[in-house]
Design a protein that fits this description.
This protein has 293 residues and is α/β, with parallel strands linked by helices. It has helices at 3-29, 31-44, 46-66, 75-94, 115-125, 156-168, 191-196, 209-214, 223-232, 241-250, and strands at 98-102, 129-134, 151-155, 176-180, 200-205, 235-238, 256-258.
Length: 293
């Protein structure tokens, strides 16, 4: 193993460690964690129990302040707007493909492997430029400490303010692709404006969001929004055959295609040899659902 390879692996490990630390800090600052800490402390201490109503009141007041999005002239907004303009300039200069991925997931880091993140990493290897919009629970969360050539990450609250500018930015001869990776309310109103500006728009149906909503895990979901996306987008990609059938029922005349999740070609290290064990061990990561192909 040469020195450059070792250096590359160390740099990657350091980036992943920074990302893990950042995500750990976000967990510690999350509402669910802080509420759990309050109740645990209240059970253990009579003094904390008496103070619990005050602590909850203060947390609610803080949440109300958080719901106010950052002003459009804030330093963070200007920083991210500048990053987008720089990325657009690079794409315009070399006519490389520009992909705007509205993910709804966390920011990109080495230890997370959901579909939008893997799509982005594959696109970057193909030398595309990628604008990756990610979700954050607090408007004051720090920006991700993750860098990659050709990549700009912007939190969703800022992305929503930048949408008109992104749509109309002059990208020269660069092919433009807008991937909507979850049916967030309001995105159905963006499809027409992006298509008018020469963007191809795809809806990537990676989950049955209606089922998530039924158990309170996607309270933002609106079935009409998803139907509008399928009817307006040039193409809908689905991770499973049942989702293909469901999306096709919304708009039988539209292009709906199965694009299942996959494994990276470098998932296993070079020279890997499988050694059977007794008794056999089966591993599974994910959730069980009626998604048979």
């Amino acid at each position: 193993m040469n020195h450059d390879h070792i250096k590359t692996k160390l740099e990657r490990a350091e980036r992943e460690l920074r990302s893990l630390r950042q995500e750990h800090e976000q967990v510690l600052r999350s509402v669910s964690y802080r509420l759990a800490q309050m109740f645990v402390s209240a059970v253990r201490s009579p003094v904390k129990l008496l103070r619990l109503p005050v602590d909850i009141f203060l947390l609610v007041a803080e949440l109300r302040r958080r719901k106010q999005p950052p002003a459009a002239d804030s330093a963070v907004f200007l920083q991210l707007q500048g990053a987008w303009q720089k990325l657009a300039g690079q794409a315009r200069a070399d006519a490389s493909p520009m992909v705007f991925l509205f993910s709804g997931t966390t920011f990109i880091q080495g230890t997370r492997g959901n579909r939008p993140i893997r799509q982005t990493q594959a696109l970057l290897r193909q030398e595309a430029k990628v604008l990756f919009s990610y979700h954050r629970s607090r408007f004051d969360d720090p920006l991700p400490d993750y860098e990659s050539e050709g990549l700009v990450q912007i939190p969703q609250d800022v992305t929503l303010q930048l949408l008109p500018e992104i749509a109309r930015t002059d990208l020269g001869n660069s092919p433009k692709l807008f991937i909507i990776s979850y049916p967030y309310p309001g995105m159905e109103r963006q499809v027409k404006s992006f298509r008018q500006q020469g963007w191809r728009v795809i809806y990537d149906c990676r989950d049955d969001w209606e089922e998530f909503a039924k158990v309170g895990m996607a309270r933002w979901f609106d079935a009409e929004v998803e139907k509008c996306l399928v009817r307006q987008c040039e193409m809908t990609m689905c991770v499973s055959a049942p989702l293909v059938r469901k999306m096709s029922s919304f708009a039988p005349e539209r292009h709906v295609e199965l694009v299942a999740n996959a494994v990276e070609t470098d998932f296993l290290p070079a020279g890997y040899q499988h050694t059977p064990v007794e008794p056999p061990v089966v591993g599974y990561f994910g959730h069980l659902a009626d998604a048979a192909l």
